[in-house]
Design a protein that fits this description.
Layout (H helix, E strand, L loop, with lengths): L3 E4 L5 H15 L9 H5 L9 E7 L2 E15 L2 E13 L8 H16 L3 E5 L5 H6 L4 E3 L1 E7 L2 H7 L11 E4 L1 H11 L4 E6 L2 E12 L2 E12 L5 H13 L3 E7 L12 E2 L5 E5 L7 E3 L9
Parallel strand pairs: 4-5, 8-15, 11-12
Antiparallel strand pairs: 1-2, 2-3, 3-4, 3-8, 5-14, 6-14, 7-12, 7-13, 9-10, 10-11
């Protein structure tokens, strides 16, 4: 290959501009991402630093992929997980295995550094490469929409259900929420009950000629399963959403607490193990994703 894969300096204005232009070209986007957006998006507050890998040919960036770090625990041990995001290959350089070279270099680097795993939700272009050529496994994604009425909340909650966290890979939810709060301070909301809490985005959507307040749950931290009903009631009382929506990895140990899950139209969560025991459950919700 005639290109070199290396870590990009996102703090350099010219490099950051080149990355935004590449992402725009690869995704046929109508506009550039905002200036400094990528650096802010990757500042995840994790123990390890996030980074961008790029493929460079003749001084020009022709491919890129971001790797967003977060801290996880599994059976009492801490691991670093890296979310694959902002994948892009310039249209003029497709077919050169640029994307595969970037991901394989990330695998090599992160394994040597002792990272736990790579994960994410791939877009339609990169999904078959991840799952058929790069050795990633896939777990489905599920969605649950709840009309915010007392009897509907009661109907959705499964009495006496419990979360078994054994062999579950659990993200540092506080870390994720702080990261999102810095990016979207006016949209991120949180409610607490006892030592449990949930967070997400409160947005207004227009449908059927009406405005609807929708609360998209980014993540949930439960000290006790019994707190979930009180959290949902407090969410209702505090923000009065019309609809509450959950989006979760199918193996999340939170999911059995609610009924009514359906398979999402989005691709599933992909996973590549590096240096940790294979987990049985990925406790991930949509809030961790770069697109949230």
């Amino acid at each position: 290959m005639n290109y070199q894969v290396k870590i990009a300096d996102v703090s350099d204005p010219a490099t950051e501009r080149a990355l935004r232009e590449l992402i725009q070209s690869a995704n046929h986007s109508p506009a550039l991402l905002p200036e400094k957006f990528l650096a802010k998006n990757l500042d995840s507050k994790a123990t390890q630093k996030s980074f961008f890998l790029v493929a460079e040919e003749d001084g020009k960036i022709i491919g890129c992929n971001g790797f967003l770090a977060n801290d996880f625990t599994c059976n009492g041990r801490q691991y670093s997980g890296y979310q694959s995001c902002w994948s892009a290959t310039h249209p003029d350089h497709q077919g050169k295995k640029v994307f595969s070279s970037i991901i394989n270099e990330a695998k090599r680097m992160l394994k040597e550094q002792g990272a736990g795993f790579l994960y994410g939700i791939a877009n339609d272009n990169s999904h078959p490469i991840f799952t058929k050529k790069l050795g990633f496994t896939e777990t489905g994604s599920q969605v649950l929409r709840m009309i915010n009425l007392p009897f509907m909340r009661k109907h959705r909650i499964i009495p006496l259900a419990s979360m078994n966290r054994t062999n579950a890979c659990i993200i540092d939810e506080q870390q994720v929420m702080r990261h999102k709060l810095e990016q979207f301070p006016g949209e991120i909301k949180r409610v607490d009950h006892n030592n449990s809490w949930l967070w997400g985005k409160l947005l207004t959507k227009r449908k059927f000629g009406m405005n609807w307040k929708v609360f998209y749950v980014g993540g949930v931290q439960l000290d006790s399963e019994k707190d979930l009903q009180s959290l949902l009631k407090k969410l209702s009382d505090s923000y009065e959403p019309s609809v509450v929506q959950f989006f979760s990895c199918a193996s999340n140990t939170f999911n059995p607490l609610l009924n009514g899950w359906k398979q999402s139209k989005m691709n599933g969560f992909i996973f590549y193990n590096l240096n940790m025991p294979e987990p049985a459950h990925l406790n991930l919700m949509i809030g961790v994703l770069d697109i949230f």
